[in-house]
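Propose amino acids for all 1146 sites.
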């Protein structure tokens, strides 16, 4: 039997090997991870029960354990134990949850050197050909390298090189500086001491600098001096190279509380990473002037309308006045935030120069960029095809960003084995696809999109083997697609076979019992039909045939490291073991993790927001990237440099006050005419650019790069020094006189609005973030690593250059087991997750609410429009699916309006125009009530022979002309500074009316039902299935799916058509024709019908195949309204006498 270790409770922290001293950030009652003695092979021998009782006696959830099985190999690890630990973690499936055992199930047996087709630096192995001896390490655990070229060599080979090779390094062929091994050891020790020890100076000043930190708390979990933590908790300032301390003749606080800086740093020219591009004055000035003119014209027009009533049809006049007043208010709320649009540009060359170029502080030129954790969420493999998700994952793994700084997490909220095995197939195919993309600079790096490009794939390709490589990769991808498409049938057949075997075994066992017992009666065997994995074990997630503990809302938490964390040094392909020549290509792959959070009956899992929060916690423990990028499963990386462009904003001066960088959403597979405004360019290219000039764009759910500590609910740095102001560009931004300049920013970086002190008390964190000390300890680390580079005195709250060039920590079993605990269903109880921390719960549009909370705390956001689209996704082109999508968005807005997230209750930290923009987000669905009434007014006017005004006089027509012309001119200027097409603007106007008369009205009703009656709203996922018609790419566009949302706009169309016919007949056969009233009613009726034209065309289907139900409903509703009108206002006999011929009013 293999020995087992035991992990007690989720809120645990590892005990350093040098002693059980507890870090100062850990809560006093936090339980600990306790492993027993470690054997030579890397296994753990558990403590006795008596030893454990004292540890868990005061801990909640005492029945929580981790059983760690035997490692895959039986060879001693010694110095290579950490590598085998990584192999063990990446080869094991971790499961667990509430009141259940957390297990690490070994998926397959692989040795530690199983990376086939790769070669490169081999850890601690001598690089001299023919020698596999281990090289020595210093006290910090780093390799001792006698030459500056970092050629790894053991003691024996070094001695041979000195004595027999003339003292020449076998790597760079240069002479060694030190020819005695003792001198090499001494030099390594001196460098270690200089790197880790604090500078010596006058004792008083040194003691003051370290007054915040105790000497015993500066070690990390491995017992070494934690330099980053020392920086975070002291007053040291940094510039070139190692720590630069204030001059002895300068006070610690310096002038105005700023420490002294070296002369070379003060004189260094500073280059920004981003630029703000203002809209030309020739465009924006007339735009603002027209807004003012139209605002004044609307005010005078409404005053004139109120004073001049239509006594002949006072009811018609009253309805029109109410609607026009609301439309004016809605237009003002929509237009005011558009006064300050801006554009932005990034400079990737400066980013490379600052973070990836050799400098005195970074001699090797290793990347100093911060890490990014990418979240991909999926929930249903039937509506969200796994092949689409797999292509998204492949595009992420191939991005142009330091490999060791990336970690991709796939959240499968359905817990389906199909998704799990598809991700495993994607991880396998990535070994070919990712190096191919790097070698030939492929764009886009989604294989499906790349191989379906309609342009010449050989353009600008200069390498001679490109054609051969592309042909081989295309064949590999075709085989990959066949394997993924065959997974559902493969899983089903496999499960049926194993189930049949279980039944046979159970029946044989029953027969044996009957023979042994004698008279027992034979009963049919009932065995739950399980879903089986490829290694002949039960899938711990959701089964195809649901069973207890294996249903969609009832299954254990699952974490599988599909691709282990890469090494910090490049690894190049081995041409002898790989079918393609990747000998000059870095073949490392980013870490890939599959996760399915635990779900149990009786718990509110909070849909997508809950899944995202589980990802935040798990990633904080496993990789803790200071930045988080979330993508929908159908949104892939179209621009491989998009991550770098987003990082330009985060790492620029003042970037520490940015909570997120939002990228625009771009879509593929849309019909050329964009019938239902699926591209939504007016919102993404006009509204979002305008908000970028204020406090920042809203969060739209995908394609967003977050700062992790902003998601944790902290306030931005220097929040007390900034006043919100009116907007970001029209008026100068004010600053409050700072009374806290004397306080170091390092102690003020983690601050929440409900805490008035200079720094947060870490002892309160368990109440906010839960009882995982791993998670709590990761918070200040993420804050420090997310700071901009302190390469100039003007950069406040920065970090030293070269601080992020060190390798990441080893991912061991205890870390993954802790990640399992934080994705359990009970972890969020009595914490602030979902209320203040992470994605906010309580709305179907959790994205808007989450972004609003950040802006409400004073954070800013940025809109990053790249020259090449950053991400691309799919959108529903079917009318019914599109209406349901808009319904979900509008319902979320109604929920926001009736909640505490209403912008009317925003804090003083939010700019005025930003508040107006968020207020419009909650109000716009209510426009549907007045819009539907206004769409029926032309028909009512034609039916009654009256109009909204007494007569069409010159004053009314002048006002109408001014309002219409200014609206058109504003549209033309918006098109000018946003770059969209006129047709896109017109499609948006059409669908505004279609959605306003259908989905928005239903959203208001559902929102009111939830508020008044407490009826919850449930939505289905937007289907991302592609059309089945191979001959027609847009076959889904013509498919008509009946929904009740179609009734209002269909009724409006039929009623207005009937009203036009009635109006013409009345006027033609009338003794005294009232042409002015007819023209007014017909003009507005045509205005309504022109906006509803795409809706009517959608109902026609392909070649006029309209469902009969459409005509039935339209006829019934039209007849009902006509009869209702006759009953309310029957025609008089005098009116009938005016009609000539045989015409009579019906």
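Proposal:
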């Amino acid at each position: 039997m293999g020995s087992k270790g035991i992990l007690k409770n989720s809120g645990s922290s590892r005990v350093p090997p040098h002693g059980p001293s507890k870090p100062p950030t850990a809560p006093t009652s936090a339980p600990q991870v306790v492993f027993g003695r470690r054997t030579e092979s890397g296994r753990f021998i558990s403590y006795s029960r008596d030893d454990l009782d004292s540890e868990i006696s005061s801990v909640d959830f005492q029945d929580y354990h981790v059983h760690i099985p035997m490692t895959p190999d039986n060879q001693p690890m010694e110095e290579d134990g950490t590598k085998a630990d990584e192999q063990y973690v990446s080869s094991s499936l971790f499961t667990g949850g509430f009141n259940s055992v957390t297990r690490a199930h070994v998926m397959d047996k692989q040795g530690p050197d199983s990376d086939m087709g790769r070669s490169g630096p081999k850890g601690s192995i001598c690089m001299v050909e023919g020698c596999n001896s281990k090289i020595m390490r210093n006290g910090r655990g780093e390799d001792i390298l006698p030459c500056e070229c970092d050629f790894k060599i053991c003691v024996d080979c070094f001695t041979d090189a000195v004595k027999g090779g003339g003292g020449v390094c076998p790597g760079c062929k240069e002479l060694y500086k030190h020819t005695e091994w003792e001198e090499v050891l001494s030099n390594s020790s001196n460098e270690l001491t200089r790197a880790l020890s604090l500078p010596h100076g006058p004792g008083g000043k040194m003691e003051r600098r370290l007054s915040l930190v105790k000497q015993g708390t500066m070690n990390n979990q491995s017992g070494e001096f934690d330099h980053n933590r020392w920086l975070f908790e002291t007053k040291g300032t940094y510039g070139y190279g190692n720590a630069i301390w204030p001059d002895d003749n300068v006070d610690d606080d310096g002038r105005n509380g700023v420490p002294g800086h070296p002369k070379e740093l003060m004189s260094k020219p500073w280059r920004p990473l981003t630029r703000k591009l203002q809209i030309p004055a020739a465009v924006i000035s007339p735009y603002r002037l027209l807004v003012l003119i139209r605002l004044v014209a609307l005010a005078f027009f409404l005053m004139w309308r109120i004073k001049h009533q239509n006594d002949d049809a006072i009811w018609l006049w009253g309805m029109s006045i109410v609607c026009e007043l609301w439309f004016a208010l809605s237009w003002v709320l929509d237009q005011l935030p558009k006064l300050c649009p801006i554009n932005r540009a990034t400079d990737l060359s400066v980013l490379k120069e600052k973070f990836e170029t050799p400098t005195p502080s970074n001699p090797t030129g290793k990347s100093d960029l911060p890490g990014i954790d990418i979240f991909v969420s999926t929930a249903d493999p039937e509506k969200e095809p796994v092949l689409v998700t797999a292509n998204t994952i492949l595009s992420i793994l191939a991005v142009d960003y330091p490999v060791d700084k990336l970690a991709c997490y796939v959240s499968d909220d359905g817990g389906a084995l199909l998704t799990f095995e598809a991700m495993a197939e994607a991880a396998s195919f990535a070994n070919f696809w990712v190096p191919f993309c790097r070698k030939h600079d492929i764009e886009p790096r989604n294989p499906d999109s790349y191989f379906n490009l309609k342009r010449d794939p050989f353009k600008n390709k200069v390498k001679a083997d490109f054609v051969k490589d592309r042909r081989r990769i295309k064949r590999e991808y075709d085989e990959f697609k066949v394997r993924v498409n065959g997974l559902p049938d493969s899983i089903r057949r496999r499960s049926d076979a194993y189930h049949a075997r279980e039944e046979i075994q159970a029946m044989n066992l029953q027969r044996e019992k009957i023979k042994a017992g004698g008279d027992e009666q034979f009963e049919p065997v009932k065995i739950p039909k399980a879903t089986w994995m490829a290694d002949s074990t039960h899938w711990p997630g959701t089964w195809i045939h649901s069973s207890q503990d294996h249903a969609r809302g009832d299954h254990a938490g699952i974490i599988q490291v599909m691709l282990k964390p890469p090494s910090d040094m490049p690894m190049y392909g081995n041409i002898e073991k790989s079918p393609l020549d990747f000998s000059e290509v870095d073949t490392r792959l980013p870490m890939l993790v599959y996760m399915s959070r635990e779900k149990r009956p009786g718990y509110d899992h909070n849909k997508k927001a809950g899944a995202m929060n589980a990802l935040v916690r798990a990633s904080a423990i496993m990789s803790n990237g200071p930045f988080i990028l979330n993508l929908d499963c159908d949104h892939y990386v179209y621009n491989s440099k998009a991550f770098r462009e987003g990082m330009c904003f985060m790492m620029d001066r003042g970037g520490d006050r940015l909570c997120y960088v939002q990228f625009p959403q771009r879509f593929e597979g849309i019909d050329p005419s964009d019938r239902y405004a699926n591209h939504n360019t007016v919102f993404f290219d006009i509204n979002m650019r305008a908000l970028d000039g204020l406090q920042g764009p809203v969060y739209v759910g995908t394609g967003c790069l977050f700062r992790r500590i902003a998601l944790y609910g902290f306030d931005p740095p220097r929040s007390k020094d900034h006043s919100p102001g009116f907007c970001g560009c029209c008026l100068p931004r004010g600053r409050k006189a700072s009374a806290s300049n004397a306080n170091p920013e390092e102690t003020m970086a983690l601050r929440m609005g409900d805490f008035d002190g200079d720094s947060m008390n870490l002892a309160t964190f368990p109440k906010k973030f839960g009882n995982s000390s791993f998670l709590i300890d990761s918070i200040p680390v993420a804050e420090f690593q997310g700071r901009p580079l302190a390469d100039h005195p003007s950069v406040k709250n920065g970090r030293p250059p070269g601080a992020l060039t060190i390798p990441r920590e080893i991912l061991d079993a205890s870390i993954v087991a802790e990640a399992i605990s934080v994705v359990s269903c009970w972890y969020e109880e009595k914490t602030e997750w979902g209320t203040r921390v992470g994605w906010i719960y309580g709305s179907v549009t959790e994205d808007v609410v989450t972004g609003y909370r950040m802006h409400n705390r004073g954070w800013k956001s940025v809109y990053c429009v790249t020259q090449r689209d950053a991400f691309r996704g799919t959108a529903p082109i079917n009318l019914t699916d599109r209406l349901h999508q808009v319904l979900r968005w509008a319902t979320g807005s109604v929920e926001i309006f009736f909640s505490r997230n209403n912008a009317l209750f925003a804090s003083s930290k939010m700019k005025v125009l930003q508040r107006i923009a968020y207020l419009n987000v909650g109000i716009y669905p209510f426009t549907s009530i007045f819009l539907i009434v206004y769409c029926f007014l032309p028909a009512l006017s034609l039916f009654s022979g009256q109009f909204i005004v007494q007569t069409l006089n010159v004053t009314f027509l002048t006002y109408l002309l001014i309002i219409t012309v200014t609206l058109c001119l504003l549209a033309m200027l918006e098109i000018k500074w946003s770059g969209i097409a006129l047709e896109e603007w017109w499609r948006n106007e059409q669908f505004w009316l279609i959605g306003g008369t259908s989905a928005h009205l239903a959203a208001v009703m559902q929102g009111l039902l939830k508020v008044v009656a407490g009826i919850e709203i449930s939505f289905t996922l937007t289907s991302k299935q592609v059309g089945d018609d191979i001959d027609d790419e847009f076959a889904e566009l013509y498919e008509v799916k009946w929904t009740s949302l179609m009734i209002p706009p269909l009724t409006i169309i039929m009623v207005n058509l009937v009203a036009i016919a009635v109006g013409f007949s009345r006027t033609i056969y009338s003794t005294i024709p009232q042409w002015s009233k007819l023209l007014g009613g017909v003009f507005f009726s045509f205005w309504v019908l022109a906006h509803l034209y795409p809706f009517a065309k959608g109902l026609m289907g392909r070649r006029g195949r309209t469902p009969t139900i459409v005509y039935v409903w339209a006829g019934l509703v039209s007849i009902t309204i006509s009869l209702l009108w006759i009953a309310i206002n029957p025609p008089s006999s005098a009116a009938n006498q005016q009609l000539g011929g045989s015409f009579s009013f019906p």
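Residues 367-454+462-489+532-665+700-718+768-790+797-875 form one domain. The first helix runs from residue 49 to 56.
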